[in-house]
Amino acid sequence: xxxxxxxxxxxxxxxxxxxxxxxxxxxxxxxxxxxxxxxxxxxxxxxxxxxxxxxxxxxxxxxxxx
Length: 66
Hints:
The chain has 2 helices and 3 strands. By secondary structure, the protein is an alpha/beta fold.
């Protein structure tokens, strides 16, 4: 059996994170392993969990990517 793609979701809007999680959880080959609500938390989770993919808002509190 193939391992699922491990994903972290990072967005400062809860409703957006919930929507993305719902879409991704519908796919059997994808596993959401964490969520972050700001840039610093996203970096911390990425370092700790080492996901395959990070789905991230580019403009977030604490640290953004622009």
